[in-house]
Design goal:
The structure is a homodimer. Chain A is α+β, with helices and mostly antiparallel strands. Chain A has 15 helices and 31 strands. In chain A, the strands form 8 sheets. In chain A, strands 3, 7, 8, 9, 10, 11, 12, 21 and 24 form a 9-stranded mixed β-sheet that branches. In chain A, strands 16-14-15-17-20 form a 5-stranded mixed β-sheet. Chain A has a 5-stranded mixed β-sheet with strand order 28-27-29-30-31, with helices on both faces. In chain A, strand 25 and strand 26 form a beta hairpin.
Chain lengths: ~575, ~575
Amino acid sequence: MRMSKLFARTLREAPSEAEVVSHKLLIRAAYIRKLMAGVYSWLPLGWRTLRKVEAIIREEMDASGAQEVRLPIILPADPWKVTGRWETYGELMFKLKDRHEREMGLGPTHEEAVTPLVAGEFTSYRDLPVNLYQIEWKYRDEFRPRFGLLRVREFLMKDAYSFDRDEEGMRASYAAMVEAYRQIFGRCGLDYRVVEADPGQIGGDVNHEFMALAPIGEDEFVYCENCDYAADIEAATSRPPEPAADGELEPATKIQTPGRSTIQAVSELLGRPASALMKCILYDAGGRSVAVLIPGDREVNDDKVARAMWPAPVRLFEDEDFAARGFVKGYVGPQGLPADVTIIADHSVRAGRNWVTGANEVDHHVSGANVDRDFRVDRWEDVAQVRLGDPCPRCEGSLRLAKGIVVGHTYQLGTRYSKALKATFVDEDGTEQPYQMGCYGIGLPRTIAAVVEQANDEAGIKWPKALAPYDAVVIPTNMDVPEVVDAAERLYGELGSSGVEVVVDDREESAGVKCADADLIGYPLQVVVGKRGIQAGKVDLKVRATGVRTEAPLDGAARSAKDLLGAAP
Amino acid sequence: MRMSKLFARTLREAPSEAEVVSHKLLIRAAYIRKLMAGVYSWLPLGWRTLRKVEAIIREEMDASGAQEVRLPIILPADPWKVTGRWETYGELMFKLKDRHEREMGLGPTHEEAVTPLVAGEFTSYRDLPVNLYQIEWKYRDEFRPRFGLLRVREFLMKDAYSFDRDEEGMRASYAAMVEAYRQIFGRCGLDYRVVEADPGQIGGDVNHEFMALAPIGEDEFVYCENCDYAADIEAATSRPPEPAADGELEPATKIQTPGRSTIQAVSELLGRPASALMKCILYDAGGRSVAVLIPGDREVNDDKVARAMWPAPVRLFEDEDFAARGFVKGYVGPQGLPADVTIIADHSVRAGRNWVTGANEVDHHVSGANVDRDFRVDRWEDVAQVRLGDPCPRCEGSLRLAKGIVVGHTYQLGTRYSKALKATFVDEDGTEQPYQMGCYGIGLPRTIAAVVEQANDEAGIKWPKALAPYDAVVIPTNMDVPEVVDAAERLYGELGSSGVEVVVDDREESAGVKCADADLIGYPLQVVVGKRGIQAGKVDLKVRATGVRTEAPLDGAARSAKDLLGAAP
């Protein structure tokens, strides 16, 4: 491709609305152009990169045994009403009516289309399992599209749907997809973690997020410095501490703590660390009072409390609840709580003794409070928010916190959709059974944005080879010197015919402009042909990812370029 | 691929609504499934064929120098209102509003999106020409979708848009696209004609339809038996006949023709052929009367009359016009018509003399009427409907009539969209100039349907190799004979590893079912492995397109299969 012809005009400035680096660079480097909020046109460079991601996904999906299909973008409303998602998606789904006033939606995902399709074809247990996927544009009417390709209203998605005879089959299909996703994101050059996601309150919905590490990511998660363990903040756990060794139990003593209703205030007053204090946090669970005990230096994870009390709806006490139920706000402790209060203690409470906690009396606390002797615990649960440095639940490593961009998501759906849509197969015993389903998504534009967030510098994008729109650019720096132009054209030809995807920057522009554009666009390799070099029979090669420059003799330059590309990330 | 796994269950019966063979076969052979009226899901077989067409188009478009981009499907309404097409498309365009009540449409075509895009990037004459294309789903809310893939509401389209500095450039871009289209449809194995389409009343809008020959086609056109000439019925011309040689001019004689107001009646009364009579057909052109002369055995082409009289609006006389303007319906002739009547004669009138025509008097005609002596001709024009057997306007061949399916359409748009959208570049002289545009479309699903209409028999589809979802199927006819299964698996492996796209039909089905499915699905080659053959060390090979069967020794069967495939259409 000749840069003089390529439909790509780079910009010196990013649009003022661009807040994140991937947005800025993909616009400036002429990969995408905004048509309207959250809707982009893909220019030739962007389209080539998008198609490279698409090809990687297709190869790995095919290798996993999944079969590619293509489902319509315009979908009839009825199945969505049956599953209830016509309502729950609400305004997030683009809705329209055709000329005959039939309601339709633009597909945000395709369970409602693929499930009846499979039920119409694969009607016997002998047909199963099957996993169908497509790579097609999806639509979500985000309230506030932003961050370039990270939150858009039209996006290319690989969505796959597995159909199995039983749960064991579903789990096997799921495992195959997780493995395919690892291959895909690895080939895209992403630094990512497979994150256990909040299983929801029922607890049965196993699902994982594939999270690309990025400081601008909107999702926080926890991962082990040592092993594969990773989970989102809602789902993360840490290894419970060892129970406290036997030791002297102090007597429980009421102490005056006037006006000291917070952990910090009591800690300061007594000169003892927050970890020596015990919080007693009150919740309402469907009308019942719940007291949650946790050391003073930790936070309770409300989602975990909610799961522990499911199906009762759980909420924190409000001010009026304290008075109405006889609690003293700021001075609550577990001692002497009535039997109709459920007392849940986090596992970390086992690791301490002689707690300072509320005395259930204004301006008073108790010191030397101990489990069983001074208060009961109805249930031991993991209800703590994980924090930096906590021990990994799986190994001896410790946990770290990070932010990430969700580039993929896998779900074990079970029979949620097949039951709702009455999609069944005939099992070996002749009974009609709902399919056990899984669904699996990858956002292609997000994947590209995540790669750019991870691979850039102040000059531009540093593509991994697998995603670069072209492998290399040949830059003649002096268009008025025929030897330079001739050598560049010769290298362009040699590289192209040896299978390198190459651009020659044949524009009548300065060397500075061309090199800046090459850095911005992010070709993995730059071949710079200059006047002085050619006089010495040499060209310069620059690997964009490392910044390393080498010289090569003109005659062997194509070979050297291929070698450098072969070794580039 | 194993047939036991392939998401494809063939059907014995086509749905009752399927009227045309491509619809019936593509449903029965499990290529597509209907989701709602005019909206189809593509199953793995169909999707593979669609992607083969897509790959052919992409290769030829890239080879032509066009650059691939991707424009959004959801489009803001405003540019469509500027060009007026928000109104003219009307209900044919799917329209919706987003959550902020902004109006949008689903793209039926993309002039309104691509024109501002180019104007934002390629702002100088030095940047031009450029031709951008995409292969993306398009939306048209057809009132009555039908004929399977031939009239749908969602369809994959290759649309390209060329931008040039001047008309000469536009014509060169246009010629390159026509050539690319010839390559594309040739590679798809289509029997097609490049048909000159009705240029519209202005006459400037050069455009061509690529018409696949098919008796069920909805468009009639004319083509030469001998050369490349082809045109749709509205635009077709034939070579004007030679003027009549000099000869005796009979005297003009009024004759009684009581009650004979039609060509047929006069012809019968006088015992003379219709070709000896001359029709005089009256039109109103913006208030002016127009008399069109044509031999009695020919029909006037109203579109041609309209073009001849443009910009006046043209309509046939209605009954009241005759009386009001002093004409005698059924007995009109050109003799003595007043000067304010425009008399247009078709060129074919030159070829005759001594015409029988109306006497402008009830129940009377005139015989021996001759041009100039008895009536004047204001303009000689081509206003005849072309008919079977007419001489070709370009060569010595004669014309045929056919019906076709429009699979591609190319247009010289000129500045229609660039002017409306104020899309300009800076020309060499510093002036702002609107782009000279062309647009070029190919319907991929229609192309597939047209191929199936041309390549089928009562048993199923006979794909050309280029479009078949797989090249070959290996059919073990006796699954209970290990030698048969082993030989089939071995051939399946050998063919696959030598680059043949191959299916093995490993289902526990009868030989009859498997062979019927193979014919229906239409793999170009069938490799049948049977018990008796294996005992003799042989397999059967069948080329689907020709029906020719050959035997090959098992050991060399993969080689023979590749050779047969190489020679297949």
